Amino acid sequence: MVTPIYAGLLALLFVVLSARVIQMRVKAGVSLGTGDNRDLLRRQRVHGNFAEYVPFGLLLILLMELRGLPDWSLHALGVLLVTSRVLYMIALRGPKEVNKVRVAAMVCTFAVLVFGALGCLVPLGAAS
Length: 128
Known about the structure:
The protein is an all-alpha fold. The protein contains 4 helices and no strands.
């Protein structure tokens, strides 16, 4: 099985992102919301964006795996999903909220969703 590899890697990354939010909450003395702290807001959005996109991406990869699509395609999407989430985290560390790295991260995330959707929708053997 391929999907558990990426689910495990992404779960570890999610824990790191969660710890970064907690760390900033403690530093800023904010227990709920952001308290107008831009660094906390950035960390919350990286964490939230991860929580919004990763489960659906993993679900699509799993469904493709259950359909019997080739392992290389599953690994390609898994690597792309992990890469996109790391890029997104890096992108929001800087002072600019919109930058090329953030755009690249979202393009990669959307590519996983689009190719995952197509992998679920296209009948097996249709490409032959």
